[in-house]
Every structure is written in structure tokens, then in C-alpha cells.
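Recap from last week: sequence in, structure out.
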Amino acid sequence: MTGKKHDWETTSANEPDPRFYVVGGGIAAMAAAAFMIRDGDVIGSNITLFEQRDAPGGSLDGAGSAQEGYVLRGGRMFESKYVCTMELFASIPTLDGTTTVTQETLAWNERMHTSSKSRLARNGVRETAPAFGLTESDILTIERMAIESEETLGRTTIADQFSVSFFQTQFWLMWCTTFAFQPWHSAVEFRRYILRFAHMVAGFNRLEGIMRTVYNQYDSLVRPLHKWLVDRGVVFQLGSCVTDMQLHEQGGSKCVKRIFYECNGEQACVEVGVRDYVLVTLGSMTEASSLGGMDKAPNLQGKAIEGAWALWETLAKGRPEFGQPHAFSSHIDATKWVSFTTTLSDPVFLRRIVEFTGNVPGEGGLITFPDSNWLMSIVVPFQPHFIDQPEEITVFWGYGLHVDAPGNFVNIPMSACTGREIMTELLGHLQFSSDSQSILNSAICIPCMMPFITSQFMPREPGDRPQVLPEGYKNLAFIGQFCELPNDVVFTVEYSIRTAQCAVSSLLGLKRHPPKVYKGATDPRVLFKAFKALHDIGN
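Predicted C-alpha cells:
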């Protein structure tokens, strides 16, 4: 730093520079480090991220090879109104340094517009721009929820608000599979989604407005951001699991004094100075994830003895201002689902899927099979999907929401299926029987069970999620999917990055604050288009 620019900076030559400790190595933690450097003029070497895994990125992961099979636990939807994400990555160069990540993403989506010709597929036949099929009662309920307060909706579920027939509509089929909602999920979060994505309701049955990164989000977002941080000296302490923190109160003010963690089986402690700051990523959507294989089903696991959930539970004991982790982490049967990543060395599947969908890879987006007992969906992205992916290799991803139901073509619950059985089920729905054996012979399908993947959607009340800056703490902030921000929606990269920017700007007293959440629902033009779409006028 050259010259004092911020109130938090060292004022005396005898005082050490403040240190910044971030618990977690996912997108929220890395974004926080980037905002510290870019907006707060923090020296990178004064920032340490503690990450339990052996790689950064958190839930935005991507790994594997053509020989062993690629793996993506999941991907996140992008769209142009993710203002915090776009603004951050406008400062981050791509890996090759030729442009910024935001410029690359925008240019890519100018070239590759999403417009699905096969959003739903039944009996081997694609459906282009399916009608929503909502009744007037359904639409009135959506409109009522949009104007009701979150306090009024409280801990109710989506099923508490709608009639049973709503969940048979094609609107619900497309909405729940695009965003991974279940009827027992939070009515409050459903309301937030309706308001947040009101501008996308028109065209939703063609997935118009959804954007993609050039490669998977690990290669396109995490790796460039990680490189930018490492180049500036940020310390990534991998394989380090934070287990507890010592909090101190004096004169009505509270602060973090020590961070306890485990690394390589050894217990360790960091002393937090009076001028230091601590940011904690709460909870984890992908903790206890389990991978299977072509001939192996993944295991369903519970909370780790040490990990993100255990840390939050430890910190929240006797501290209601730290939220209620059990509201989100204690319902595995309601929050789990199975995803799968398939790597193919034979081009026949890609050729058949292009013929079936009418879309080139990357143009169509999610394809859902409404007749699937698993409510299975797949997406075939532009190839290559990984930076190191050979030209002759195809990679696609899919998931199922009803993982405890037996399949239509394999009489086994998806949760107990091997990759081979999942592919057999998929090929049955596609009716690719003439090529099914050659496709199976060239496939490496890796299923992934995620017990907490929709935990952030569970019904909640005010106080279940702590504030980004818990009241009374002078050097502590929370980031990630499980802290409270008004208006924005969880299960998005945008939410994680917004919490990081809020935390950094508030803790450091910066003048640069996060851009406001886009509110299309206040625009009469957006509302008119959404009204027409909900009534299937012009769809």
C-alpha cells in the first residue's frame, strides 16, 4: 500500500499490517480476497484462505480426464443481471490474459445464444416452447406471493401455497428442474426467485436469457480468479479444516481472538490480532458428496465430524445471532439429489442428441424428461467443456430430483444406481435403442450423491440465517449461501459473490459498495411480458 487510503489501514510504523483470515476456499472466499485487494488495497500476502479440500473452488469444481472420466458435481445458471459477478470478473483476466473473464463470457454468449428446441422430451419426442398450462388460480397465487411479505409467508413451503394441480403443470416441471426446487422447499425462496427472475419468465420455456461460460465454471471462473489471487501473494492453505474459533467480549464489543484448525492430522491455532479480520463461509451444499463409477453407486453420507456444518453448529451454540444451522442441515432426505457426468469417446451420442434436440451443443440447455420417475434432466454443453478435453471426447451432465423412486427402465432407485444403470435409463427415455450398446461401451458415467445440495432451499424464518455482519462483532463477517441478504436468491454464484462484497465493503468501511440487485419486477414492461407468458399468450 502506498499512503493511507482507508480507515482500517495501519496508522503507525510500529503497528503490523492487518491480517485477513477467510474460512473456506470457494467462490465466496476467493471473491472476498479479490475485493480486499482490488477495493481495499490489501496486500495479497496478508490474506490467508483455509480450505479443507486439496483444491480451491468449493462447490464450483471440475476434475478428471478423458481416460478416467470428467466430473462436475454441478453447474450454476448465469444471466446478464448477475451484476456483482460481472463486475468482479471484469477485473479478472482470462487464463491466457487476452481479455477479462466478463468480456470473454459476454462475447461467447453473443455467439452462442440459448434457445431450446427441446426443453421437454416425452416418448422420444422433443417439445419446443411448451405451454405453461397454469390455471387462473395458479397465476393468482403467484401474484399474491409476489406482493406478500416474507414475514407473512414465514416457514411455509411451496406446497402450502399452491393446489396439488399446480405441481402437474409444465410451468412447474420447467421451473423446478431449472432451479432444483421441490414442493417442500421454502415459499419465501420461491417468491424471491419469481421476483428475481421476472424478466426471464417470457422465454423461460426456451431457456432464453440463460448464459454460459466458455468452459465449465471451474475452468472459466475459478481457475482465472485463483491465478489472479496467487499472483498477488494470497495464501491458500489447502487441506486445512477450521474446527472452532475463540470469541472475546470486552466493553460490549465482540471479536475473534483465535482460529483453531486441523492440517495433516495436526491441531493448530492462529492468533487473531486486534486489527485483523475474519470471514467465515457458513455451511456447504456439497459436503459429504460421494462419487460412484460406471459399475459403482455412490454412497449416501451424513455430516462430517469436522467440516463446514460442524463448524457452524459449534459457533452457533448459545449464539442465536449466528443463525440456526439445523434448519438447513438436518433434512437429508429432503435436500439430496444425484448428479452425473458422462464422458464419451464415441461420437454417436453427440450426433444422435443433435438430431433429437435440433440444437447444437451449448445452444439448447437443459432437457427434462417429464415421464421419468427420477425427473431426470441433462444438458449437453458446447464441446470441449474442459480446457484439456481432447477433440474426440464428449462430456455432458445430468441430474435427477426424485432419487428414491425406481427407474422406468431400470427397476432401481437412482440413489442406488451405477453409472451404467443411469446411462441405461437415460438412453431408454431418449429411445436410442439401436445405438445404446455402442454408447454404453464408450461411456464413463460418474454419479455423485450430494446430501445437502438443496439445503439452502429449506423453509426458514428470520434469524435462521445470520446477517453478513453479526451485530456486535467488530472483526467478523459471514459469507456464502447461508447468510442473509435481502432480495437476492441462493443457489447462485451471484449470491456468494454479493455476500463477499457486502462483507468486505462493510468490514473495511469502503466507499465502493455492491451494485443493487436488479429488480425487473418493478418494471411495467417486464411485468407485462411475464403476465402474457404466464397466460400462454404468444408462447
